[in-house]
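// run 5 | inverse folding | seed 20
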């Protein structure tokens, strides 16, 4: 009888949940303003969160040495503004020049790519294994043409895109300032919304979430930055064309766990192949050495055992998030999953604990 009662309650809850989803889907137009507001706020708040976890250790370091918190934050912002100014003087002109050269040289790059494919097709060994490959060069060239054209249009419009979103993105440092200034009061505000009997568990969950996000974000940024420097130095040594641009793209893609290094290596290999097939080997050596150092030296030292997510779970999360929200979803998928996992595990433990208490009574 007890099992039937539980099954009946489960069916009722399931039907009620499905009914709620159905009703929401019928009046989804009412939520469009909320979705639009969420899309506007997600970018600055996500950036502010990244800045918060990146800069908070420095703020703690300064405040422990009796520097006033507001003065410490403003000092950090001054240093960041100086670094940004130096970046605009030293790195940005070279990066813009390589972007413009890449966009202007797109037809030449495609023709060079076609010539390289043709040379490979004319190789006797390749012709022996594949005699019907006359269209391979044209097909690959057309695919590369589409990719390079899209990339060229994108990179040439980057300045316009940044200008369009400048007001939205510029609010991130302001939000992060208040997060750094009043970060300790945020958990207390959240705990007021939790019933008093669960206050202790809520505090522990918030501490666990804070530690997980801090470790992941700070570690990921440090590793990505060091990996980008290693690849750029390696590309300079082997003489890869557009070395700064390619290293910059690979660094951005390496923010994505697991599949990021693979995606980042693709443009490196394509540019190297256009230059010469021998350059592909050198690029692969540079990328593999950098990734081996990152995987076997940097990641264990920086992460330790703080990141407990199975690689298959990560890949599924990235695929689903990329389909739903694009590149922003891919970047936020892992932190969001970590938060949900911590909360779900704690709720499940509380549920089991209450069931045990009911059985004991």
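// decoded
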């Amino acid at each position: 009888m007890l099992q039937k009662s539980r099954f009946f309650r489960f069916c009722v809850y399931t039907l009620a949940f499905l009914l709620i989803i159905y009703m929401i889907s019928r009046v989804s137009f009412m939520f469009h303003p909320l979705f639009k507001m969420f899309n506007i706020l997600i970018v600055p708040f996500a950036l502010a969160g990244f800045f918060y976890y990146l800069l908070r250790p420095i703020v703690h370091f300064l405040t422990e040495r009796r520097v006033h918190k507001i003065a410490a934050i403003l000092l950090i912002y001054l240093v960041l503004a100086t670094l940004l100014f130096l970046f605009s003087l030293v790195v940005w002109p070279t990066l813009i020049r390589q972007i413009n050269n890449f966009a202007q040289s797109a037809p030449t790059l495609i023709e060079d790519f076609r010539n390289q494919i043709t040379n490979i097709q004319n190789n006797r060994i390749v012709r022996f294994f594949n005699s019907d490959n006359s269209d391979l060069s044209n097909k690959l060239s057309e695919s590369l043409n589409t990719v390079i054209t899209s990339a060229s249009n994108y990179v040439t419009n980057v300045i316009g895109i940044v200008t369009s979103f400048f007001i939205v993105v510029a609010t991130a440092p302001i939000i992060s300032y208040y997060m750094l200034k009043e970060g300790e009061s945020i958990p207390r505000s959240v705990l007021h919304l939790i019933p008093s009997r669960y206050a202790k568990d809520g505090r522990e969950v918030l501490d666990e979430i804070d530690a997980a996000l801090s470790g992941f974000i700070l570690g990921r940024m440090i590793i990505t930055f060091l990996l980008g420097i290693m690849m750029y130095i390696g590309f300079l040594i082997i003489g890869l064309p557009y070395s700064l641009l390619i290293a910059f793209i690979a660094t951005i893609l390496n923010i994505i766990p697991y599949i990021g290094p693979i995606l980042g290596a693709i443009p490196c290999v394509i540019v190297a192949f256009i230059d010469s097939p021998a350059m592909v080997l050198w690029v692969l050596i540079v990328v593999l050495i950098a990734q081996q150092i990152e995987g076997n030296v940097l990641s264990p030292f920086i992460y330790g055992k703080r990141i407990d997510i199975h690689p298959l779970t990560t890949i599924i999360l990235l695929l689903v998030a990329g389909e739903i929200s694009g590149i922003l979803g891919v970047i936020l998928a892992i932190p969001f999953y970590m938060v949900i996992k911590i909360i779900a595990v704690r709720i499940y433990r509380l549920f089991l604990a209450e069931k045990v208490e009911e059985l004991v009574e």
